[in-house]
Amino acid sequence: MSTVLLIEDDRFLIEDLKTFIEFEGHTCHTFFGPDEVIENLEHLSKYDVIVLDIMMARGKYLQDEESNLETGELLYQRIRAKYPDMRVLIISAKNFDEMHIDFTKEKNVATIAKPFSSTASELISKL
Q: CB 3.0 to 4.6 Å from 8: which of 2, 14, 61, 100, for a disulfide?
C-alpha cells in the first residue's frame, strides 16, 4: 500500500478523505493548505503519492504571488521542481480545461474532479 500526503484546505473533506484512504489500507498524512506544504517541502520524498487540491486559500507564503495560477498549481510547480518523478493526484472542483497547467501532459499525474460522491473509488484506484 501507499504512503499518501493529502493536501486540502476543507477541514471536513480532508478528514473524510483521510478516513477513506486509510480504510483502504493506505497510510495517509494531511497538510491543511499551502503553508504546511512549503514549510515541509524538504520532507515530501517520504510519500509515494501526493493528493493535491487545486483551489485553496493562498496562505502566508503564496499571498504575494502575482500569478493567475490557482494555489494548487503554484504548489504543484514547487513540488515538481524538487521531486520531478513524484506521483501526484490532482483533485479539483474547477474544470481542468480552465487551468493554466495541462495536467494531462504532465508525467506521473492523474486528475479527479470533485465532488467525490461518485468518484471516491476512482481516487483509491489511482493511488
A: 14
Of residues 123 and 46, the one with the higher pLDDT is: 46
ω into 84 cis (within 30 of 0): no
| Assigned C-alpha cell, 115 | 465532488
Q: Which residues pair with 110 in a beta bridge?
A: 89
Which residues fall within 8 angstroms of residue 97, CB to CB, at 6 or more apart? none
Write out the three cell numbers for 106. Answer: 504532465
- Cell 499551502 locates to 34
Torsion, Cα 42 91 9 15, to 10 degrees, reads -100
pTM for this prediction? 0.91
Residue 114: all three cell numbers together: 470533485
Q: CA separation (Å) from 111 to 2, 24, 36, 96, 98?
A: 17, 19, 22, 8, 13
Alpha-carbon distance of 93 to 117, in angstroms, equals: 12
Find residue 111's DSSP bridge partners. 90
